[in-house]
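Job type: complex structure
Entries:
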Amino acid sequence: MEIITAVKGFKDILPPETDKWRHIEATAHEVFCAFGFREIRIPLLEKTELFCRGIGESTDIVEKEMYTFLDRGEESLTLRPEATASIIRAYLEHTLHAAETVTKLYTIGPMFRRERPQKGRYRQFHQIDTEILGPDDPRTDAELILMLLHFLNKLGLRKLNLEINSLGCAACRPAFREAILSYLRGREEELCGDCLRRLETNPLRVFDCKVETCAAIISQAPLLPDFLCAGCRDHFEKVQASLRLFNLPFHLNAKMVRGLDYYTRTTFEVTTEFLGAQNAVVGGGRYDHLVRDLGGPDISGIGFAIGVERLAAMIPKADADALLQGPLLFIATLGEAALEKAFFLCNGLRMKGIRVEMDHAGRSLKSQMKRADKLKSAYTLILGEREIAENKALLRNMLSSTQTEVGLDRLEETITELAR
RNA sequence: GUGGGUGUAGCUCAGUUGGUUAGAGUGCCGGGUUGUGGCCCCGGAGGCCGAGGGUUCAAAUCCCUUCACUCACCCCA
């Protein structure tokens, strides 16, 4: 009979990969907590309308990538393609804005987008998502970015590239949009098919095009920063000043635009050369109107999303290997009486929180020793017929290859001390 | 949605003028004298060569179809 396989683009995460994931998550909890964030857990399923209104009807995500279905033929539901809209929904639904002026939240979990899978891109993927809801103080932007880079550094990631830009606000972006449109309109024959389409849907995205002829045109195009209003320019300069205060190196990238409609003012990405085409590990930015557009008060927000699969792929191998820890003790036995004794001891120690392994198959001492070595056990306890008869056991230090005798009545106590 | 690449042992891969029982490394199991790991040596298990069809005396190898995986475009984390 044929086995049933996982759905395309949906991956199992197996050990030892899961060790890496737990390390990433534990580090996130620790770092975010220090910066005053609290964890929020939100549903995987939301009403479709939430994402249409939140992310934007004309975005690729909403237009063609969402897992949307009718629940019992009645209500349109969608597996969340991102976390921000859900967090804002919960924030409003539970009136968190009334409880405090600044709310810092984060969540970790799977997102779903029906794209063609490739390296660093899956249909179910995972994000670590943070949001700060409250006043649009530029120090908040800098603080969030600072926390992000601290987190990435703590995971041992190197050669990261932080790019920032300001997309302006409702007052200044339309002017830029007009400028770029009129610039491109005269050069339509030189643009690629995709860019011609972008001209209609989202002209700013032409900046992202990798086609050479388009890039050439874009290099001469008007740039967003030149169109920022006084308020946006001032805000962006203060963000940069704060980043410099912490000696945080960053690249100003006037051509970085982002694919979600809600971003305003500060946007940023962290990229790396290690990931092939999907080089963005983190993306984020400020959104001035999302809370209001979802029916809430006029509160600004800023957040970022980290791709966990991409992050895990970047963790240096040496760091990942260091996560592999062996048991404290392996118990090797010979004979039924020893096996029974070991079985009792082994599980007793485990219940004290000590990692102990043993073999139940009654194999040769040699193969049990091999197993202990393979597992990277710090110690091996040898318990044979001879030892049982003499009421003792041999405790072998696997690193120094030395062994001592321990009386059976003092065994548990001795091992417990080793664990300290 | 569009294009390229790849499917042979658990894993990484060899294997074309089509020709016996399909190989290596690694991992797994066992052994190298009677109860001691790493190095070394020996042995063993494990594959309808992705699936289906065709050509041929003969197909892992040639042809067609299909499926899966993968990389890239699009877009994004």
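Summary: Chain A has two domains: 17-172+228-319, 325-415. Chain A has a mean pLDDT of 91.
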